[in-house]
Amino acid sequence: MRETISEGYKAAMKAGDKRRTATLRAINAAIKDKDIEARGQGKPALGEGEILSLLQKMIKQREESLGIYDKAGRDDLAAVEREEIAILNEFVPRGLSEAEVDAAIAAAIAATGAQGGKDMGKVIAALKAEYPGRIDFGKASARVKAALG
Q1: Phi-psi region at 6: left, alpha or beta (left = phi > 0; alpha = psi -120 to 50)
Q2: What is the CA radius of gyration of the chain?
């Protein structure tokens, strides 16, 4: 993922796409900041899952800003946020549909041998390992609970 972002940055610079270049520069800077922070704590550089989490956080921040700009009638700033969200989404795996989430939950329950609510943590952990960044775990936890209950 790190390589894909770097290649995209170089291509955007060559193409003269200012918005894309700025957005990808921000991604690279955020990754580098986290790498430096991890190194200071004696940890290795960010892995794929951590980069994915960082990108999702950046998307969420821009979505919040977009909502504020829309309410304030700042269409110019809202357009910038929409463009950046679209660019960031190119590097995030596609989320699972409702049916795919249900199938993933059923598979995780079968794989972990979960029997009831006390095994919910095992199922969520299995889903996080198998589908990082592709499931909204805030919503999925209620579905897992229902499936186990």
Answers
A1: alpha
A2: 19
Cα–Cα distance measured from residue 74 to residue 79, given in angstroms and rounded to the nearest whole number: 9
Say yes or no to pLDDT of 102 above 80. yes
> Taking the model in full, what pTM does it have?
0.71
For 45, other C-beta atoms within 10 Å of its C-beta total: 14
Q: The tokens of 125 are what? A: 């952990």
Rounded Cα distance between 125 and 53, Å, is 16
Q: In the structure encoding, which two tokens stand for residue 60, read together?
A: 């969420």
Nearest to 77 by CA among 85, 67, 69: 69
Six-digit token string for 52: 């994915």
Whether 70 has a pLDDT exceeding 80, the answer reads yes
